[in-house]
Design brief:
With 199 residues, the chain is of the alpha/beta class. It has helices at residues 15-20, 38-44, 57-64, 101-111, 132-149, 166-176; strands spanning 28-32, 49-54, 71-74, 87-93, 112-122, 181-185, 189-195. It has one domain (4-125, 154-195): Vaccinia Virus protein VP39 (Rossmann fold, 3-Layer(aba) Sandwich), CATH 3.40.50. The chain has a 7-stranded mixed β-sheet, with helices on both faces. The termini are far apart. Residues 30-119 form the Methyltransferase type domain.
C-alpha cells in the first residue's frame, strides 16, 4: 500500500483547495464520496469531528484500516438522515458526477450551517472546441506531474464520461449557489467554493 503522503493523482492534487477554505473554528465536516478516506483524514487535522460517507464498501474498508477517529458511513449521501444545517464544512472530490448534479449540490447546500463553507472538486465533460486549449495543456501538465510523482489509482468506481459539461456545471452552480466561485482547472477538474449566508 502506498503511504497517503506519497500518493498523487488528479483528485489529490486539488485537496489543498479544500483544506485552504476550512473556516476557522469549524467543528464538523462532511466528506461526500469519501472513498478510502484520504481527504477525510486531512480534514480531521483541522476539524474535530469529521464524517465520511460513501456507497462503496471496499473503499470504506480501506479507510477504516487507517488509525484515526473519522466516522465512516456506508450509505447514500442523498438519503442518509443527516440533520439539516449540521456541518461547518461540506467537501466533495470527484463525486458529484456520480449523481444528479443539481440534486447533489442542493443537498450539500442544505446540510451546511449558516456561515459554513462548501467546496467541491469535480469532473465534467469537455466540449470541442471550447475546452480544447485547456484540455491540451492539462495533458502536458498531467504528464509532467505523473513523471515526477507517479500515479495512485483509487479503488472507487469510475463513471466516464461525466454527464454534465463544464459550461452546464458553471450555469448550474450559479443557479443553486448564488455568489459561489466556480473555476475550471488544468487537470480536468473544476472547483466550486461557496460560503452559506448567515441569514
Amino acid at each position: 500500500m502506498i503511504p497517503s503522503g506519497s500518493r498523487w493523482n488528479h483528485n489529490i492534487h486539488y485537496h489543498s483547495r479544500i483544506l485552504r477554505v476550512v473556516p476557522k473554528g469549524a467543528q464538523r465536516a462532511l466528506d461526500v464520496g469519501c472513498g478510502e478516506g484520504m481527504l477525510a483524514r486531512e480534514l480531521r487535522r483541522a476539524v474535530p469531528y469529521v464524517t465520511g460517507i460513501d456507497l462503496h464498501g471496499p473503499s470504506l474498508d480501506q479507510a477504516r484500516e487507517h488509525p484515526g477517529d473519522v466516522e465512516y458511513i456506508l450509505g447514500d449521501f442523498l438519503t442518509h438522515p443527516f440533520e439539516p444545517a449540521s456541518f461547518d464544512v461540506v467537501a466533495s472530490v470527484a463525486t458529484l458526477h456520480h449523481m444528479d448534479a443539481a440534486t447533489g449540490l442542493a443537498r450539500m447546500r442544505d446540510l451546511l450551517r449558516p456561515g459554513g463553507v462548501l467546496c467541491v472538486v469535480g469532473l465534467a465533460r469537455s466540449t470541442v472546441p471550447y475546452d480544447l486549449p485547456c484540455d491540451l495543456a492539462g495533458v502536458v501538465v498531467g504528464a509532467l506531474h505523473r513523471a515526477a510523482k507517479g500515479y495512485w489509482q483509487h479503488p472507487s468506481p469510475i463513471v466516464w464520461p461525466p454527464p454534465v459539461t463544464y459550461a452546464q456545471m458553471r450555469a448550474l452552480t450559479a443557479e443553486i449557489l448564488p455568489g459561489s466561485r466556480y473555476r475550471r482547472h488544468l487537470l480536468f477538474r473544476y472547483s466550486i467554493t461557496w460560503r452559506k449566508p448567515q441569514h
